[in-house]
Inverse folding.
């Protein structure tokens, strides 16, 4: 192979850009702190709203909906591969941005745009879901408080609170995050207390959530029962969106290879237990019809209804108070997290630079925050609460599928070939990741039109913005996905791209256009381990056609087709 660009494919137009993880943050987060933060993100917005809505989805197959507890277990198992995959990715790429960074680094700017918008939408919709639930609890306690709230007033309250949350985010007030841990602790203890009171109630029926008609008229193991359980599991998937959120701060975690996967697993176990606990005891005591399950208007404040049933009006007011505080806190952090995806995409030239601008006084990305708040307001005013949950779950399932596939792509690259050196590796690879992708796809299909429309919309809008704006400005980078694709479909191209990638990985930042003898020896150690240092030295001088004491990319790639390595 000569030095012509036609023989080098289009590699000379590409940029090798390993992830910059040079920023060193203080590693101050231990295991218990991680678990507390993850639980805050996981339980805050959905715990007080999802039970009746999820049971209603299950009841669409003709059952009572009392088997919702099993849907949470199924959803938890589907989340497990993503938690392990994200723990691995987080230890390899300890950078803020989480899933967006992992997907963009692996698949390139186009998939980065799609995933970034999907993440922005899912976090924003989850926060909108919290605010809709917030207003539902205000509406639920109007009678004992002596006020009358219409749906219009409830939405107006939600918009007003959203406005305050946007202003707080712009002002950069971070102290509110410190009180989220005790708020979530209070929420969990309150749910446990309600469950204990329900279990001691004479009318509590331990067997009702286990009966066949709790899932469908034909029973759990019928086609209707399986489809209903899968659909409900997909719907409640949103409830676990915060399990993997902690990976975004992997650079601040003590012993990340140990604490990151442990915190995710413990968060998943605890959150699943809480969801199962509340749904089992809720429907073991109450009839689903009392919560509007199976009707056109399922209860959007089920924990309030539950509390009134076990403890009367006063306990119902307390439940509403706990729910309101918890969901308001989660909406605050939701706007914070969601707006940062727009900020990151703007920083990567995928969106206009205006979203990267910081407020001169508070140093926060105020335009990104305002756009996020506006999108949430539209969702609150125009999308029914059930569809909000479906859209958010659909986006999240799509992102989790991509996260699992990312690990598969990066693991296929030979050791030492790239920057990908995670200190924790997911067990049962690749079966675990394949299960995550396939099960996610099944859930996405079971969710029906709303989730599929949301996923297709994210792909369509992301592609449209990338083609019209981002492609012209984003730097063309050489991605692991490209070499993975070539390995499967074009063996010759794969070899050339692999050698090009190793060349760039072994060059020094001060001279990225050539290899010294030491760097050349290192590269051959990766590509042809059987060649020793003395043989590598001889080959170096043989390849150095112009005798300048260095091997450029054309000389390096040209040596691949010369056959000199096969004779060694």
């Amino acid at each position: 192979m000569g030095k012509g660009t036609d023989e080098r494919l289009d590699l000379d137009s590409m940029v090798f850009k390993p992830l910059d993880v040079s920023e060193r943050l203080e590693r101050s987060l231990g295991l218990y702190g991680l678990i507390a933060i993850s639980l805050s993100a996981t339980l805050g917005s959905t715990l007080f709203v999802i039970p009746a809505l999820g049971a209603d989805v299950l009841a669409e197959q003709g059952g009572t909906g009392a088997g919702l507890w099993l849907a949470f277990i199924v959803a938890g198992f589907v989340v497990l591969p993503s938690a392990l995959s994200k723990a691995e990715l987080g230890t390899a790429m300890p950078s803020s941005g989480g899933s967006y960074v992992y997907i963009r680094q692996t698949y390139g700017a186009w998939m980065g745009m799609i995933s970034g918008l999907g993440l922005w939408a899912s976090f924003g919709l989850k926060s909108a879901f919290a605010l809709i639930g917030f207003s539902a609890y205000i509406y639920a306690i109007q009678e004992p408080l002596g006020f009358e709230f219409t749906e219009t007033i409830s939405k107006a309250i939600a918009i007003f609170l959203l406005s305050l949350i946007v202003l707080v985010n712009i002002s950069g007030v971070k102290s509110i995050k410190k009180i989220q841990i005790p708020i979530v602790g209070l929420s969990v203890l309150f749910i446990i207390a309600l469950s204990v009171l329900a279990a001691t109630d004479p009318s509590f029926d331990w067997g009702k959530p286990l009966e066949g008609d709790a899932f469908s008229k034909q029973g759990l193991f019928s086609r209707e029962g399986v489809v209903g359980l899968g659909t409900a599991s997909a719907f409640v998937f949103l409830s676990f969106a915060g399990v993997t959120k902690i990976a975004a701060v992997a650079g601040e975690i003590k012993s990340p290879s140990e604490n990151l996967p442990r915190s995710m697993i413990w968060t998943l176990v605890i959150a699943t237990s809480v969801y199962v606990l509340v749904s089992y005891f809720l429907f073991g005591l109450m009839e689903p019809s009392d919560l509007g399950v199976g009707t056109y208007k399922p209860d959007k404040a089920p924990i309030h209804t539950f509390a009134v049933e076990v403890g009367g009006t006063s306990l119902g007011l307390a439940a509403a108070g706990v729910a309101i505080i918890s969901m308001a806190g989660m909406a605050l952090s939701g706007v914070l997290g969601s707006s940062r995806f727009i900020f990151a995409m703007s920083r990567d030239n995928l969106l206009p630079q205006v979203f990267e601008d910081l407020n001169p006084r508070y140093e926060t990305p105020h335009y990104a925050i305002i756009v996020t708040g506006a999108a949430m307001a539209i969702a609150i005013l125009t999308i029914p609460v059930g569809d909000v949950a479906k859209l958010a779950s659909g986006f999240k399932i799509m992102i989790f599928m991509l996260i699992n596939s990312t690990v598969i792509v990066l693991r296929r690259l030979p050791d030492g070939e790239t920057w990908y050196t995670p200190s924790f590796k997911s067990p049962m690879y690749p079966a675990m990741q394949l299960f995550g992708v396939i099960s996610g796809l099944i859930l996405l299909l079971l969710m029906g039109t709303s989730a599929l429309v949301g996923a297709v919309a994210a792909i369509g809008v992301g592609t449209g913005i990338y083609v019209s704006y981002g492609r012209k400005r984003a730097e063309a980078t050489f991605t692991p996905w490209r070499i993975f694709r070539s390995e499967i479909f074009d063996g010759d191209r794969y070899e050339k791209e692999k050698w090009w990638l190793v060349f760039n990985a072994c060059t020094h930042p001060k001279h990225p256009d050539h290899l010294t003898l030491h760097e050349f020896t290192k590269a051959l150690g990766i590509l042809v381990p059987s060649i020793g240092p003395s043989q590598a030295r001889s080959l170096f001088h043989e390849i150095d056609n112009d005798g300048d004491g260095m091997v450029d990319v054309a000389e390096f790639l040209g040596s691949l087709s010369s056959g000199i390595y096969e004779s060694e």
